[in-house]
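ok trying again, last paste got cut off:
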Amino acid sequence: MTTKKKLLLSAVAFVAVSVIGTGAAWASGVTLPFSGDGNTINGCYSSGGALKVLTPSSPTCPSGYVPIQWNQTGPQGPQGPAGPQGPAGPAGPQGDTGATGATGPAGPAGPAGTSDAYIASNNGEVGISDDGLQHELTSLVLPAGNYALTAKASMVNGGNGPTYDCFLNAPSGTLDEAQTEGTTGQTDVTTISLAATVAFSTAERITLACTSDAPGNYGGKFSKIVAVSVTNLH
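nice, full thing came through this time. structure:
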């Protein structure tokens, strides 16, 4: 083996030993004595292949040598491609039902509904004969609007068993009609009731009137008409 090859092998072995030694020092947390950053090895090489590691005691390259550096840790490589997405994991158990939330504030009050009521009554007794005429018991004048109507009266039987035919009337005609019959030979009182709905575009008069098929001075008393104003009729 030639002297030149021996020198080159010796230099390579020296650098390898130096790198291994310094690698062990760096791995154990000791700063390399020949480098400020603890990772770079500074050295020189000649045109003939001779290598020299620089140290604090020998920090410069001899004449004719070219500076060279090694890194104990190589540069970071490029980021690799993303791997395939893994399979979805199993569904977890259902959580507990949450607590009931607080009651919200009350909403604003709605508009007031229609509550007008009109009443007419006559507690006196009105005689009803068999003259074929309707005898008025009571009446009620209503302004324009929509109304639900009820009417009633107590019909007196003087013992001759009359049949009373009563009518809830408006100017346009009869709104409702009902009959009640007394018992012959008995003096008693029966109640008659009527009901209807009506819509007026102007003020109108409502009447409760009755006829009788039997003579006598008996008739109806405690008569009443009640009209409640409503928004709509269905």
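cool. DSSP finds one helix and twelve strands in the chain. The longest strand covers residues 184-200.
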